Amino acid sequence: MILDANDLPDGTPQEADLCIVGAGAVGIAMALDLLDSGLRVLLLESGGVAPEAGSQALYAGTVADPALHSPLDTYRERRFGGSTTLWGGRSMPFDPIDFEARDYIAHSGWPIAFADLAPYYPRANRIAEAGAYAYRADQAFTRPLAPMIEGFASADLSTDTLERFSCPTDFGRRYRHKLEAAPDFRLLLHANVTGIALAADGGSVDHLQVATLAGRRFPVRARHVVLAAGGLENARLLLASRDVHPAGVGNGEDLVGRYYMCHMAGTIGALRFTRPVWHGYDIADDGTYCRRRIALIPEAQRRLRVGNVIARLHHPRIIDPAHRNGVLSMLYLARMFIPYEYAKRLDGEVRLDLPTQARHLWNVLADMPGTAAFMWHLLRDRRLAERKFPSIIIRSKANLYSLDVHGEQEPNPDSRLTLCGDIDALGMPRLKADWRHTRQDIASIAAMLEVLARDVAASGVGTFTYDPDSVAHEMTRYGAYGGHHIGTTRMAASPRQGVVDAQCTVHGLANLHLAGSSVFPTSGQANPTLTAVALGLRLADHLKTLAARPPVSVSTS
Ligand SMILES: Cc1cc2nc3c(=O)[nH]c(=O)nc-3n(C[C@H](O)[C@H](O)[C@H](O)COP(=O)(O)OP(=O)(O)OC[C@H]3O[C@@H](n4cnc5c(N)ncnc54)[C@H](O)[C@@H]3O)c2cc1C
Of 118, 314, 404, 479, which sits most exposed with the smallest number of CB within 10 A? Predict the structure, then answer.
């Protein structure tokens, strides 16, 4: 059943066995998994089914350095479906090495191993509609594929791992009807959790405080509560709930909001090949778009003492008309029609004066047939298709590419979220994000680039040239990689090192659980959603087991 919190009587408590806060990727996946559990599940969602400025404004906050972090009400959507209403759908699991404690990556190591999460990935993959759970080209394709880079050989780099693409599935739109029809399940729209009220002894959640922007307020009581409000908002809810513990819920060790990671990302250098390369999508038998990338293998990471880094062959920088490509220039000229999150990388240091604009226009006119064909491809395969062509792929006649790099961030306690002085329309303190990167973050990428340049040359397939002194600049040119909000309520076996335990339960609070990328202790190289959903499904399994036990004491007054 789907209800609007504004239609409920003011002040009337709502009750459930399990309450999940946030109907984004993780909250919806968990709800789907619990539909046949026999538990009365209540899913609280701040937004409605369509975007609403009032709800979105609740996400606003401040950033320490606007050059390093986007505004907090961008790169996330506060509505049913959460940020899957905007995401790109790039999916891949974490690698086993990401879970290991590595002495060269400070604060690394999960209290669980890849094997603990492995059983949940295939179902996460199905819910995300990312096709078969096969993330190596040799497993995913029965037909032989042409090599990504013909003749390229490397002992340290693999070109066989895949990223797969979801439709990209908007979880709200896709699963709404299933949720609507389910018995024992309620989704409350426009229901904002504004605080977690603990029992007087501080040892369990008593109730959640819920408010609507239209002025309704009521408590929600449940045997178990899961916060699945996103990587930033999970931390905000804990920090802002200060009735019993002045530092916030689960924050006895001052860890909530710390270790904030996104990913390091940027485009660098020039790869010129003398042999055929394939940098586009390979389409799996089930129609899923897949793409191979260049990945630093675990053995090389250990030997070089660096983090996990991957790279893709990419088109030249769009804003510089020197590429003389009509399609790229057309994208540049149309940038005001592209959402902020996808247009951000079209801003830059090239002067956007009239002559530059004219050169872009000239590129479009000079390449009219190519540009027109591309427009048709864009309309048919990206706008109209249910499973969308994931990104712009430009064949280079000169066999010349730049390198698009995506790298792990080292957990850093000084990279953090705190509450700032402002409050939102519901009286909740807003967040301040002070995102930082470390020397190791840059060193990991620098090492990967060095290996690539060496092995491209040694294989005799071309050259990779780049300025080693520009790595830090290029990897921070657009600041923190938007949309990946990781580590702010990290998982650790000990309460001194983490906010949640290996089951995602807040240390010392048996009926409060956290779901989403906020619990990842490290970021890996992978985009986070598949792992966040897999962890959520693991938590759902755990909650089914807990529900079979006698209830923890929750007051009903
Ligand atoms: C432009 C963009 C592209 C992306 N591309 C990719 C990609 O290719 N691959 C990938 O893996 N990831 C990608 N992501 C990230 C991906 O969208 C997130 O990882 C994913 O949506 C996180 O799921 P979640 O359920 O944890 O949070 P969300 O999807 O953010 O959902 C949180 C939900 O909680 C609700 N909520 C928040 N606060 C409250 C409250 N106080 N009370 C009640 N409800 C509340 C919100 O309204 C929202 O519905 C992208 C993100 C963006 C912005």
Answer: 118
Asked if residue 263 has pLDDT above 50, the reply is: yes
How far, in Å, from the CA of 234 to the mean position of ligand 1? 11
* pLDDT tens, residue by residue, 104-154: 999 999 999 999 999 999 999 999 999 999 999 999 998 999 999 999 999
* CA–CA distance, 163 with 317 (Å, rounded to integer): 22
Neighbours of 103 (CB within 10 A): 9
- Out of 114-118, 324-328, 394-398, the most confident range is 114-118
CB neighbour list of residue 184: distance below 8 Å, 6 or more residues apart = 35, 38, 39, 40, 41
Residue 321 DSSP class: G
Arithmetic mean of pLDDT, 273-291: 94
CB of 390 shorter than 6 A to ligand 1: no
Pocket of ligand 1, candidates 44, 87, 165, 173: which has the most ligand atoms within 8 Å of its Cβ, to mutate?
Answer: 87
Where do runs of H (alpha helix) occur along 394-463?
A: 439-459
Most confident by average pLDDT, 281-290, 297-306, 325-334, 344-353:
297-306
Q: How many C-beta atoms surround the C-beta of residue 382 within 10 A?
A: 13
Specify whether the CB–CB gap between 161 and 473 falls below 8 A. Answer: no
Give the domain ranges of the chain: 1-58+77-102+110-130+166-262+483-557
- Residue 44 near ligand 1, beta carbon < 6 Å: yes
195 lines ligand 1 (CB under 6 A): no
Q: Candidates 3.50.50.60, 3.40.50.720, 2.70.70.10, 2.40.10.120; correct CATH number of 1-58+77-102+110-130+166-262+483-557?
A: 3.50.50.60
